[in-house]
Every structure is written in C-alpha cells, then in structure tokens.
C-alpha cells in the first residue's frame, strides 16, 4: 500500500516536471524571439486589456459549442434541416474561436506558476482532445454523416466540460490569472520609508511601509517606489533585472515601469502598486497612489 502511494507521488512529480519543461521551452522561445514576439505574447496575455484575455475567449468557444450541442440534441427528436444547420454553424464558430483561445492559453501556460503546472497541462490536454473531436465532427457534418458528427461532438462535450472544470480550478483554487494581492490603499499620508543615504544608485532596496513591501530605486537624484511584490504571482521584484527605468520580475519576466508601476510586458496584466516619493529631513517618504 505504501509503495503504491510513493508511485503516485512520483507520477505527479513527473507530470509537473513535464508541464514545466514544456512551459519553459515556450517561454524561452518568446523571450528569445525579440520585441515582436514579446508584443504578440502581451497581446495574448491581455496586458492591453488589464485582465487576462484567455477567459474572455473561452466564453465564446464554450458558449458556441454548448449551444451547438444543445441543437444537436434537439435535432435527434425533431428532424429539421434548419436545426441541423444552426448546430453545424455554432460548432464551426466554436472551432474558429478556438484557435486564438488556444494561443492565449499557450501564452499563459508558458508562464504558469509552478504549483498549478500539472493542472494546467491536464486542462490543456482535455481541451485539445475536445477541439480535435469538434474538428472531426465538423468534417463528418460536411460529409453528411450526422451520426458520427453527433457522436464526436457528444464526446467532445465530455472532454470540454472536464477542461472547463479544471480551468475553473486554476482560477478559483490556484488563483492563476488573478491579481496576487488586493489593491493597496495605505499609506495615504506621507510615511517614512528609509534614510535617503541608505539608497545607493541602482541598488534596489525592499522596505516595509504600513505593512506593505515597497521597492525603492535611485536613479540620479530621483528615487522611485513601486510595490515589491509582482502582481502576477508574487515574485520578489527587488531581485529582478533593472534597465531602462524598468524592473523585470525574476520569476516569469513581467516588466514594470519604475515611474508608476505600469505593465510594460506581461505575463502580468496588472500593474505594480504605485507610490509617490519625496525626501524630508534626509528621510525618503512614500504614499500610495490609489488605483483608479
Ligand atoms: S511572478 Fe510571474 S512575472 Fe512576476
């Protein structure tokens, strides 16, 4: 009994390793692909939307395929060419919408936080099988083989429902795509952070102000401050790479503008917390800029 448990643990570990290997390979290709590839990844992550794009697209796919399957069921009881045409059209809409949805899912998967990697792989596998079955169903519909078409779509529905369940688990239990922390609202008044002389040129400092981790960074006479925790999945930004007025997260390479916490590159679709700074009596003081 004990050895069976050990085997199961090993399987889970191996699955996670395989998932992370695939994710890292995709992410490395994006990072090495240059600015154009990075912008395409940003588009797919949804950085322009301020919200992950993938769940928005999945609504279209799941909606079209689910209603299409409903009309398939109706066609079993009511022989109607019109009902069959509606079902066929909806399944085809889902097929077309699935392509950008898969790409956005791949982009998010490439930077998946480790604890969610194996569930994300299972989610992607179930949905890929579902997609392949819907394509097979459409080909059967085009040939006029309705029995095969409805069998494929029915089976696809089982895989897609499983994929949807796992997708919900990723968002609600593993918090993938969810902002890592709640909006920071304190301090609203100027509060001391650190003596100005302790912040050296281009040497990031992490301090706590009003219970919040704050990253301080000096460039010339200017000291900038943003939240020290990455909104994507909690990476320590003070350990990131600093260049061109920005910081790159050490975990999945999101880039934030040090001037205001704005997202320059994903995967994060949420900005880092923005703080104003000033120096009073040799002390750097900060106050949060509320999220509008
Ligand atoms: S934790 Fe993922 S990009 Fe920062």
H-E string: HHHHHHEEEEEEEEEE
Distance between the termini: 56 Å
Strand tally:
10
> DSSP helix count?
6
Average of per-residue pLDDT values: 93
Largest sheet: 6 strands, antiparallel
Measured as a percent range, the helix fraction is 40-55%
Tell me the fraction of residues in β-strands, as a range.
Answer: 15-25%
Number of separate domains: 2
Structural class: alpha+beta
Provide the low-confidence segments as ranges.
none
Shape: elongated
Bound molecules: FE2/S2 (inorganic) cluster
Would you kindly provide a brief summary of this structure?
With 292 residues, the chain is an alpha+beta fold. It has helices at 2-32, 35-45, 54-77, 81-110, 117-143, 146-172, and strands spanning 191-195, 205-209, 212-219, 222-227, 241-243, 246-248, 255-257, 263-265, 274-280, 283-288. 51% of the residues lie in helices and 17% in strands.
Any overview of this molecule?
This protein is α+β, with helices and mostly antiparallel strands and 292 residues long. The protein folds into two domains: 2-172; 191-288, Rieske [2Fe-2S] iron-sulphur domain (Rieske Iron-sulfur Protein, 3-layer Sandwich), CATH 2.102.10.10. 51% of the residues lie in helices and 17% in strands. It contains six helices and ten strands. It has helices at residues 2-32, 35-45, 54-77, 81-110, 117-143, 146-172, and strands spanning 191-195, 205-209, 212-219, 222-227, 241-243, 246-248, 255-257, 263-265, 274-280, 283-288. The strands form two sheets. It has a six-stranded antiparallel sheet with strand order 1-10-9-4-3-2, with no helix packed on it. A four-stranded antiparallel sheet has the order 5-6-7-8. A hairpin with a 2-residue loop joins strand 3 (212-219) and strand 4. The longest helix is centred in the first third of the chain and has 31 residues, at 2-32. The protein is elongated, with a radius of gyration of 24 Å. The structure holds FE2/S2 (inorganic) cluster. The site of FE2/S2 (inorganic) cluster has 12 residues, from loops.
